[in-house]
């Protein structure tokens, strides 16, 4: 799962959101690191809908404009949870290895100067 | 131009069905973004949206491996068809080969004999050519050949004459038995002298190669004056044939892929019974396209590997030659008909299209 996809699913995890809502949520979630553009967002939403991970929740007309809200399906929630687990496991492993890293310049056992 | 109309115009990069389903909400999102950060969208944003739209046209339905196979096959088949069209277009830029009557007049004038036999042909590079032969009892006259060619506007680039021997009785091997031993002897056969000439000429993008020979003597065999002359006239490649063949190939590959994407999404959105009929017709179209695609592929290969520096333009044999033309034509017609049927069966249902993707 790519980062934008992960963030889009995360943005929808709390409840149904419309397109621009997802873009703002991703901006906040990633601390401005991931800027989602409409082309990317709707391409991803279409693919996620095809795979049954998201679906249309409802449509609203605001000032004559169509707003379509998307929600996470149960399958989408499961996929997101599985990805969270994978990321956490990898992050934990990375953290543990970093802790065992020798301090810069330290002599390792068996290593000749 | 209002911002909304500007955004709607950008959405033309997307496939029609996608635009109908997502267009309105994408415009809403773009307008809401613009309200937060006023000003026209930057060139980068515009380009990104257009690129995403074009990319959408190439996408195939997710988790449908068969559609990928179909897309690849369609790309190859239409690529081969496109290359054939490209080759044809390329040859349209070449000089026109002389007509039946023009060639006939030239041949009879060069040979000094009546009744030439003229035939149209195509080289292995699919270039146009005309072949003309004539035979009868006449005289050998190199000057007559030169004059006939020059009078018709040809520039002679090579003209070689030589004395030849015409074999009346070919050499044979005879076994003679002498004193109980077998002796193998070679009979030299009998030859009659002949005069021959080979020539090459050019005229405004055309090349002519030819030859003539006349038997001198041999009256006892009824051969004296037996004359034969043959001309091959072909159009020269202007240098446009291969580039246009490649351009046609690429255009065909692109069309095959885009068509598969469009048809696959269309079939996906139609109701179950229609979907089955459309998918079956689509597969029939592919199966029927196999033979014409193979033939077109072989032709394209010959065009690309043709030796344009060969002294004579030539015909190459390929596995496609064994396939009857009628079968190729029938396959092409069936493929186009089945594809049209598939598109009709999976035709848009506007009522459903307006419904959300979850429908």
What's the topology here?
The complex is a heterodimer of chains A (113) and B (359).
Chain A: H1 3-13, E1 17-18, H2 19-29, H3 38-50, E2 54-62, E3 65-72, H4 74-99
Chain B: H1 3-10, H2 16-36, H3 43-58, H4 65-92, H5 100-111, E1 117-122, E2 128-137, H6 142-151, E3 155-169, E4 172-178, E5 181-187, E6 190-203, E7 206-215, E8 226-235, H7 241-269, H8 272-305, H9 325-345, H10 350-353
Antiparallel strand pairs in B: 1-2, 2-8, 3-6, 4-5, 6-7, 7-8
Helix pairs in contact in B: 1-2, 4-7, 4-8, 5-6, 7-8, 8-9
Overview of this protein structure:
The complex is a heterodimer of chains A (113) and B (359). Chain A is built from 4 helices and 3 strands; from the N terminus they run αβααββα. Chain A has helices at 3-13, 19-29, 38-50, 74-99, and strands spanning 17-18, 54-62, 65-72. In chain A, strands 1-3-2 form a 3-stranded antiparallel sheet. The model of chain A has no long low-confidence stretch (mean pLDDT 89). Chain B starts with a helix and ends in a 6-residue tail after the last helix. Classes of the chains: A alpha+beta (113), B alpha+beta (359). Chains A and B meet through α2, α3, β2 and β3 of A and α2 and α3 of B.
Radius of gyration of chain A in whole Å, from Cα?
20 Å
Spatial gap, N to C terminus of chain A: 44 Å
Which sequence of strands runs across the widest sheet of chain B?
1-2-8-7-6-3
Mean of all residue-level pLDDT scores of chain A? 89
State the share of residues found in helices of chain A, binned by percent. 40-55%
Subunit organisation of the chains? heterodimer
Q: What overall form of chain A do the CA principal axes indicate?
A: elongated
